[in-house]
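Data card: per-record layout.
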Amino acid sequence: MTRTRIAVVFGGRSTEHAISCVSAGSVLAALDRERYDVVPVGITREGRWVLAPDDPSQLAIHGTDLPEVTGGPAVALPGDPTAGGLIPLDDGAAVLGSVDVVFPVLHGAYGEDGTVQGLLEMAGIPYVGSGVLSSAAAMDKAVARVLLTAAGIPMTPAVVVRAGDWKTDPAAVSDRARGLGLPVFVKPARGGSSIGITRVDDWADLPAAMAAALRCDPKVLIEAAVVGREVECGILEGADGLPAASVPAEIRLVGDYAFYDFEAKYLDAATELDCPAELPADVTEALQDAARRAFTALDCSGLARVDFFVGADGELTLNEVNTMPGFTPSSMFPRMWAATGLDYPALVDRLVQTALRRGTGLR
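The structure for this 363-residue chain is written out next.
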């Protein structure tokens, strides 16, 4: 039987480079080599495409940056110089053109934002996940807010600030933000993994928070804090093209953290997960319905993770939609689907088969 040839693309130029590497290690480990001929393709932080060894443990354990490759001898992956190293990929088009499908395990800019999706569309190569428009819209939280609000889905109150606004008249921006009340969260409009996000409890701290966010993105959101439980829901595209919802899961902070920041997500045992979340049946149903509607409103494909705040009375406020959620062993998306009855290898296989069935074309 001819095996399906799949390129797993990971790394990238975004601030989430290391998380992408860990996610890719898990995906590579889950792919059945009797069914798939796997081609690991890394993208360095500098944007160089490289062929990487098919050794999931290197990425799953280390999750470190792919080294820059400038030609010449192969460069070994961190931690194991005998792993085969990285081979400069001087003709990326030829490699991508030789595969049946691509799994772009890329988080953040230059990968999850429609850029790589556009490349694959132009090359006519099927790929896992959402298309150009939906990837770009979901990545840009300011744009996503417009589309989701138009679909009747409640969103967190926020002010959108561009770098020019802040540089020209920070006092005016501060006045607009004060209308949200304290505390507020200042975040890059196009980012993930809580990188560049600051909780502000005193308006005197707003300039420093803006500086941190602007280092990541020239467009920033200042969002009002919402009192509520943090509950997420996974969405998968079904064989009929309709979105199916996982059981929701609740994240609870147990460490000394002001919010669910990068360290709490990845670097410390700072959270506990209730999966499924302990919610009344009607709230669970409403949350799953809202997650499916958000998936459709942004015209997503394949998969998404939809994050909510759930108030004491069951009121739902949508926080964000992630079109390529984390695939690390501790990531919420695969854990929610495992609790729903779809284990990690079956989840990865379903995503690949959905991409192959859908094929190429505008979406």
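Known properties of this structure: The longest strand covers residues 229-237. Residues 60-64, 68-84 have pLDDT under 50 and may be disordered.

See the next section for split statistics.
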